[in-house]
Amino acid sequence: VSGAYPTDETHSRDETTPMSRDALKTLFHPFASGTVDAPGEGQRILFLGAEAGFSLPGGFAAELSAVQGFRPFYRQLQAQRINVTPEIEGDGYDGALVLCGKHKGENEDHIAEALARVREGGLIVVAGGKEDGIQPLRKRIEAFGLAIEHMPKYHGVAFWFARPADIKAATAQLAKPATRVEGRFTTAPGMFSHDRIDAGSELLASRLPTDFAGDAADFGAGWGYLSVELATKSPRIERIDLYEAHYGALEAARANLLANCPKVAQRFFWHDLTSEPVKDKYDLIIMNPPFHEGHAAEPSLGQAMIKTAASALRGSGRLMLVANRGLPYEPVLAENFKEFGETCRNARFKVLWAKK
Hints:
The protein is an alpha/beta fold. It is built from ten helices and 18 strands.
């Protein structure tokens, strides 16, 4: 489950972005302040990286097509009755809004998509927080020779430009091709640990069973590394179900399982494990739960996923998870399982097990 993406250097699992964050207000400020004319009725505006919690400025009567692949944010947009899809659909839009997050590659890819899908002359408005690198991004876009206007507001910057006739150079440099990890996995920027196997997942993989023969689930499966490892190590596995909140990562996992273990029965669920119930029951659940790593770890996401796992396991079913050493998951394991323990630990991570 991957939402507000950390820099790859930290390798934290960071899933939380506050609703109505400042960057959202920054994005609509050029319209709200009258600096830019709001798009009128009959116009179609693409909204990439969309998040709920905004109110449209006066006169903004265009039809919004929001795109959000992170399941919790998608559901919030649906609750706000915004037209939202997990992937971009269609082209020939009259304009685009791009809400930037922490991941540079994903932000650039969104601008490339906006250029490709907006008609010539259509307005593209981009905004983000200063801490998310919006200033270097603006300078990068200016380097393509575009006439850019910008304004700072709410600890961020909004900038905008008309979609030029020739977009080849810009889209070629901004669009992010798929990444290959260890020659076995296809990933993309914006996914958790998209450029290498996460060290925590690798530690858990080294302890996965080789004789498992029932139904398994991978909670917060990302792009499928742990699922592939389990299916490879335990060839008698009957089925594996992958649950992931990041739509793009789940699609990558689908491709990676098909490529690496095509004979294993597999299902894929775009799912928010902290708020949507799991209907099936399993003999084994594996997971590397997300956590927020700011000034302090925020273990509530992992704790919620542990509770969901407990309710989705059959009697005597097992949970195996990896976590940062300092995260207090043991009390929630004690509350929800008959027995639990620690398999191993290293300088950064611990592998825990629990039995229903």
